[in-house]
Amino acid sequence: MLNLLLLASLALAPQGAQDPAAAGPAEAPAAQGNTVLPAWPSIEAPAQPSGRSSSSWSRTRRFAPAPATTNQTATRTPVSSLVGVRGMEENHVMGIGLVTGLAGTGDSASAAKQLLQNLLLTRTINVDLQALSSKNIAVVLVEADLPSGTKEGRTIDVRVSTIGDAASLQGGTLVMTELTDMMGRDVYVTAAGPITVGGFSAGGESATATKNHVTVGTLPDGGKVQREVPTSIVSEHGFIYLDIKAAHNTFGNVVNIAEAVNALYPGLAEATGDGKSIRVRVPEDLPSWAHAEFAATILRQEVLSENMARVIINERSGVIVMGGDVRLQPGVIAYGNLTVTIAETPEASQPGPLSGGTTQNMDRTNLAVEEENSALVLAPGAVTLQEVVDVLNVLGTTPRDMITVLQAMSQAGTLLAEIKRM
To answer: Which of 196, 237, 248, 365 is 20 to 30 A away from residue 351, measured at CA?
Structure first.
């Protein structure tokens, strides 16, 4: 190795230094046995990765609501807020349509081109399927809710949504589409016109900006009623049926409504056997043109509505809504959070030059486990909504954690309410 270095130094030395006689008298010869080597630049090893990945879990500061007073007395509510008149339901109609005029955000599948070809054939225009482009068209589902009794020629709102892989309906126009019943036999609504998306989508090769949902749009008053759905508020046997709404479905509300109607028209109302409806008999001498006025006087009556002992929870959004009659039995609750944080940080180790090594991937894992040490909490009984709120606030949990607590309390029997999941 030393010989190689000497040869390299001689090859790199200046030409004048190769002849010892050419050296000046001021230059002293090197001492025998001491070889002077030239200075070589140092070769640094490649820098090794030093980055660290991290993962953390935190809880925001708890919002402390101001104390509020609750009114536990029953609320007087119009009958129209608690019931629906049988026969006045909305009817769902739908169809498959084609949206044109899209700026390159249409479907990529051949279904859109096939639908466009069929549309052109209705105008005696025959175009080969391969010659059509689908980047500016999209196949959509067109839907509308048709109220009963809406006359021909009236306009209603229409909804459109993409079926294929269209990226946006912005700027599109719906081609004339027929909306039919579930069997597809009778056409009730026709829809056409420009689509309102309520947002936008713009982007380039490496960045995209989107506001709201651009694959679903509406046509305000874009549907025209072609066929009426016949209906009548009075049945063929001369009764008006008031069906209790699901959110107020209690026997007490049904009885209160029947009593309120009988107070106005004695002996005309009675609760049905299933406890879900009120049947009101229409006087025989009442003309047909006065049936709507007769029903309106009933719906304007106010009754004492019962509070529902019900808890509505939505685990996706963490929403909790409680009814006024929710109660708590005394119990003991212990709740503790267990937080596990795992961070994977693989690193690549590069070998030095001329070392003959290979690049190696080295696994790095950071694991942190934190368990909250919570004591037992005595939950006293609560007979008012404010007391229920005060007891649950003592736990200091987040809304998502509170959902788990409420489910456990319901199974233990300490929560006297029905839990409904959205």
So the answer is: 365
Record the pTM.
0.65
The pLDDT, as a whole number, for residue 9 is: 47
Alpha-carbon distance of 342 to 319, in angstroms, equals: 28
Helix (H) or strand (E) holding 277: strand 277-281
Of the two residues 78 and 58, the one the predictor is more confident about is 78
Q: Which residues contact 40 (CB under 8 A, 6 or more apart)?
A: none
Task: Tell me the C-alpha distance between 351 and 235, whole Å.
Answer: 89
Which residues touch 395 (CB under 8 Å, ≥6 apart)?
333, 335, 377, 402, 405
Whether 103 shows a pLDDT value over 50: the answer reads yes
Question: What is the rounded CA–CA span in Å between residue 116 and residue 129?
Answer: 9
Cα(22)–Cα(41) distance, integer angstroms: 28
DSSP element (H, E) containing 314? strand 310-314
Q: Look up residue 252 and give its DSSP letter.
A: H
Residues with Cβ within 8 Å of residue 322, at least 6 apart in sequence: 310, 311, 312, 385, 388, 417
d(CA 263, CA 164): 58
| Strand 415-416 with 327-328, pairing | antiparallel
Side-chain half-sphere of 326: how many Cα atoms within 13 Å?
25
Which residue, 337, 313, 338, is CA-closest to 326?
A: 313
Average pLDDT over residues 114-142: 87
* Dihedral, 242, 243, 247, 252 alpha carbons, nearest 10: 70
Task: Give the residue from 231, 296, 242, 304 showing the smallest Cα distance to 269.
Answer: 242
Chain segment 4-23, per-residue pLDDT in tens: 444 444 444 444 444 444 44
The model's pLDDT over 311-348, given as tens digits with 9 standing for 90+, comes to 888 877 778 888 777 888 887 777 666 566 666 677 77
* 3-state class (DSSP) for residue 24: coil
Torsion of CA 279, 283, 288, 291, to 10 degrees: -50
pLDDT tier for residue 66 given thresholds of 50, 70 and 90: low
Check whether 40 has a pLDDT greater than 60. no
108 alpha carbon, distance to own chain's centre: 26
Task: Domains for the chain: give ranges and CATH numbers.
Answer: 91-200+211-225 (no CATH), 232-305 (3.30.70), 310-346+361-421 (no CATH)
Query: In this predicted model, which residue has the larger pLDDT, 325 or 245?
Result: 245
User: What contacts 408, CB < 8 A, 6 or more positions away?
Assistant: none
